[in-house]
Design goal:
Elements lengths: L3 H22 L2 E7 L3 H12 L6 E8 L5 H8 L4 E5 L4 H14 L7 E4 L4 E2 L4 H11 L3 E9 L6 E3 L2 E3 L6 E3 L14 E3 L8 E4 H7 L14 H8 L3 E12 L18 H6 L7 H11 L3 H21 L5
Parallel strand pairs: 1-2, 1-4, 2-3, 6-12
Antiparallel strand pairs: 4-11, 5-12, 6-7, 6-11, 8-9, 10-12
Helix pairs in contact: 9-10
Length: 314
C-alpha cells in the first residue's frame, strides 16, 4: 500500500516526465482570436480536440463577443485557456495577448501556431506541422488553404512579392492539391494568420506582432520582419486548412464593389487595402528609402485598380 509520501513522489515523477516530454517534443501553443462566430469557433475547437499530436495547448482570445462565444468555450472546451478582451484588441492585439500568455510558460524549444477560427483541420494537422518544424527549426511554416466546399482545390498556396514593384503572385491557386507530391512546400515572401507555425525563438529575436501600426491586418508584417532577420518562410502543402471563405468579414473578398464600398475599402479597419495600412506596410518592410517609395506607389496603384476594375454602378 502506498504511503502519502509514495503518492507525492509518484506524482512528482509523473510531472517531471510530462515536462521532459514537452521539452523533447516541443509544445505547440495554438493561439486563436475569436469574435462573434460561435458556430465556427465550435467547429474549429472540435477539430483541435481530435488531434493525434497531443503536446499542444489552446489559447482562445475572445475580444468582446456578444453571441455567447466565450460561454461556449468555457462550457464545452474546458481544456482551452480563455482570455477576454473588451472589443478593442482587434486581430493583432488579440494574437499578441495570446502569445504573451503562452510565453509565460513556453521555452525556446516551443512554437506558436497562429490560426483563425474560420478554418477546419484534419486530425493529423498538428502532427504534420510538428514534424516539419522539427526538420526545419529556423523556419516559419504556413498552411496551404483549400475551400471547404471543394477541399481538392487550392485557394491559397502562398504568395511571393516583388519588393520594388509590389507585384504579388498567388501560387497555385485553382490547381488540385493532388498534383503536388507528399512533402511539397513553396518558399514565400509573407505568411498570413491562416495557420502559421512560428518558433518561440522568433518572438524572442524580433518581438511580437506590430499592434501599433496594424489593428486588423497585422499578420503579413511579422513574417517579413522574421525573413529579414534570417528566418525562412514556407507554405507546406501537407499542412492543409479548409477555409470558410464566405465567413470573412473583410470587404476585400467581394467580387464586385459599389460606390458605397469606397470608404470601407480604402479606410476601414477590416480592409487589407486600407491606405494607412498600405503606407505603414511599405515603410515597415522596406530595406531602403528607394524601395519604400517604389513599393508604396506601385502598391497603391495595385489596390486602387483592384477596386476600380470591380466597381459596378447600381
Amino acid at each position: 500500500m502506498n504511503t502519502p509520501v509514495d503518492r507525492i513522489s509518484l506524482k512528482a515523477m509523473e510531472d517531471l516526465t510530462h515536462t521532459e516530454n514537452q521539452v523533447r517534443h516541443g509544445t505547440i501553443y495554438v493561439v486563436v482570436p475569436v469574435f462573434n462566430r460561435k458556430s465556427l469557433t465550435r467547429r474549429f475547437l472540435s477539430c483541435l480536440s481530435k488531434q493525434s499530436f497531443r503536446h499542444f495547448e489552446t489559447i482562445v482570445v475572445d475580444d468582446g463577443s456578444t453571441d455567447g462565444t466565450a460561454e461556449l468555450v468555457s462550457e464545452e472546451f474546458r481544456d482551452v485557456q480563455l482570455l477576454r478582451g473588451d472589443g478593442n484588441l482587434w486581430w493583432t492585439g488579440a494574437i499578441n495577448e495570446g502569445i504573451r500568455h503562452a510565453m509565460t510558460r513556453a521555452t525556446p524549444e516551443d512554437a506558436i501556431l497562429v490560426i483563425n477560427d474560420d478554418l477546419e483541420i484534419s486530425s493529423s494537422y498538428l502532427e504534420t506541422l510538428h514534424g516539419l518544424w522539427k526538420s526545419m527549426p529556423q523556419t516559419l511554416i504556413g498552411s496551404v488553404a483549400v475551400g471547404i466546399e471543394d477541399p481538392e482545390i487550392i485557394v491559397d498556396g502562398g504568395t511571393t512579392v516583388n519588393w520594388w514593384t509590389a507585384k504579388i503572385k498567388k501560387l497555385n491557386s485553382g490547381r488540385k492539391l493532388s498534383e503536388f507530391e507528399e512533402g511539397h512546400h513553396e518558399d514565400v515572401s509573407l505568411l498570413t494568420g491562416r495557420g502559421t507555425l512560428i518558433p518561440i525563438q522568433v518572438f524572442l529575436d524580433i518581438g511580437l506582432y506590430n499592434d501599433r501600426h496594424y489593428q486588423q491586418s497585422g499578420d503579413d508584417e511579422l513574417p517579413v520582419r522574421a525573413r529579414n532577420a534570417g528566418y525562412s518562410l514556407i507554405v507546406s502543402y501537407t499542412s492543409v486548412v479548409e477555409t470558410h471563405a464566405k465567413a470573412s468579414c473583410s470587404v476585400n473578398v467581394s467580387d464586385t464593389y459599389s460606390l458605397r464600398d469606397f470608404r470601407q475599402y480604402f479606410f476601414g479597419i477590416r480592409s487589407n487595402a486600407r491606405l494607412k495600412g498600405r503606407f505603414l506596410f511599405a515603410y515597415d518592410t522596406a530595406t531602403n528609402p528607394f524601395s519604400f517609395i517604389g513599393f508604396l506607389l506601385c502598391d497603391l496603384a495595385r489596390v486602387a485598380s483592384h477596386f476600380l476594375l470591380r466597381l459596378r454602378f447600381r
